[in-house]
Amino acid sequence: MSPRAQLLIIDDDPDFVDGLKGILEPAGYAVDAAYNPKDGFDALKAKAYDLLLLDILMGRGAEGIMLARKMRRDPQLNQMPVLIITGLREQIAFLFPGQPVHPHLLPVDELMEKPVEPALLLERVGALLQAAQKREVESR
Amino acid sequence: MAVQPSKILIIDDEEVVLDSCAEILEGEGVTIATASDGTLGLQRLADFHPDLVFVDLKMPGISGMEVIERIRTLDPTIVTIVITGYATLNSAVEAMQKGAYDFVPKPFTPEEFRLVTHRGLERRRLALETAALRRERDMLRENFAGIVSHELKAPLAAVQQNLMLLSAELSGVLTDGQKARLDRMRVRMDDLLKITQAWLRAFATNFEKIKESFKPTAIPVAVAKAVESVQPYAQRKDIEIATTVREPLSPVHGDEGLLVEALVNIVGNAVKYSFAGSRVEVAAEEQDGRIMIAVRDTGVGIPPDELPHIFGDFYRGRGGRAEEGGSGLGLALTRRIVEAHDGVITAESTPGQGSRFVIALPALEASAGIPSPSDERVLQKSP
What we know:
- The structure holds two protein chains of two kinds.
- Chain A is of the alpha/beta class.
- Chain A is built from five helices and five strands.
- Chain A has a five-stranded parallel beta sheet.
- Chain B is elongated, with a radius of gyration of 31 Å.
- By secondary structure, chain B is of the alpha/beta class.
- The model of chain B is unreliable at 371-383 (pLDDT under 50).
- The relative contact order of chain B is 0.07.
- At the A-B interface, helix 1 and helix 4 of A face helix 5 and helix 6 of B.
C-alpha cells in the first residue's frame, strides 16, 4: 500500500477534522478536508482520492447520506471506499427506522462512532485501502 | 385561523328524519349533508369529511352497524352517533361497543337532538386535539433526539477526539502528574458523553429494533461486568459489594451490553443511596424458568409515595445527597431495557432500612448454551 494514499474528510466540524488529521497525517497519509457536502462532492470530482472519511449529520439533516447515495450513482466514484464516522449508531437507526442499523450505503463502506480511538482508525483506514487495492488488482 | 363550521353527515333512509334533523340544526352554524343509505353515506364520507355522523341502524342495503365499523377503521377520530327506535335499544348498545359514541332514540325532541349533537362535536374536538398533541409529542421527541445527538454530542466528540490525539502526541513528554490530569479529562469527557447517550437512548432508541440482535447471554458474565464497573465508586464510598451467583444459571435471550447497563444502574443506585461501611448484595439465581437478579442495600430507602414513580422519566430520589448527580433517567432506561428482554423489574423499600430491586428475565432452556457469535442454529431456538 502506498504510504502517500490520498484521503478526503468531509465533516462540518473543523475541530473534529483537525483531530482526525492529527492521527492520519503523522501516519503518512495526505489528507484534504471539506466542511460541507457540496464542497466535498466538488473535491471528489476534482481529484482522485483513495478513501473518503464521511460524516453523516451535516447541515439540515443526514446530508452525508445524500452524498453517499450520489456517489453510488456516479461511475467515477462508486468504487471508492468510504469510512463513515458518525455521532452514533442509534441516530442512524432513528433516522431510518425499520432499516438495518448499519445502512449499506456504498458497496464498500465501514462505520465508526465518534470519537474514534486513534489506533482503531488507522487500522480501519489501512484495511479499507488494502481491500480497495486488492479489488483493483483483481479487476485488471 | 378562521374556524370552519363543523360538518355533520346524517345517514337515514327516512326522508322525514333527514329533513327534521337538518331543520333542528339550522342556525347552529354547522354544515349538513345527508345520505339515504349506507353505501351513499360511505361515499359522502370521502368528499364531505364530516366531523360527526348520525347513522340509522335499520336501513335497506348495508347495515348501520357496518357503516359504523367502516367509519371507525377509516378514521377513528370521526364521531358516530346511532339513531334508533326504542325497539332496537339493544342494537344501540351493540353499536356503541363497535365504536359509536352515543345514541339518540326515535322519536326525539329538537332539544335532545341538539344536545346529542353538541356532545358529539365536543367529542370530535377532543379527539382531534388528542391526535394533534400525540403528533406534537412524537415530533418533540424526535427533534429532541436530534438536538441531543448533534448539538450536544458533536462538540463533545470533537473535544474527546483531540484529547485522544494529545495523549498520543504528548505521551513521551508529559510528567506523570500531567498525564494523570489528561487522563482525568478524558474520563470526565467520557462521563459526559455517556450521559448524553443515556438521554438519547431513553428518548429515541427503538428497543424493538435492538431485539433483532439478541442472542443467548450469560448472566454471571453480565453481573460480573456490572459489579466491576461500579466497584471503584463503591470503594470510594467504602461500600462492599457482595455477589452470589447460584449456578447453574440458564442464559437469557438478550444483549449483554444492555443488560450490563441495566445492572450498572441498579447496583450503582444501591451504592449511591447506601451509607459508608455498609454492604450491597447482588444475587442471581434461577427460579421456575426465570432468572432473578436481586440487588439489596441497607441505605436510605425510598418513601412509599415515591415508589410508584421511580421507573418514570426524570425521577430523582429525594434521599440522595445533592452532590450525587444523575440524569434522572437511569431507572426509566433500566425498565425499558428489562422490558425489551420480556422481563419485569420490581422494587420494594423501607425508608431508613434500604431497598431491594429484582430483575426477572425469562430463562432460555439450559440446552441452548452460550454459542459462539456466529452460531445461527442456536439463535433460532430462542423464543
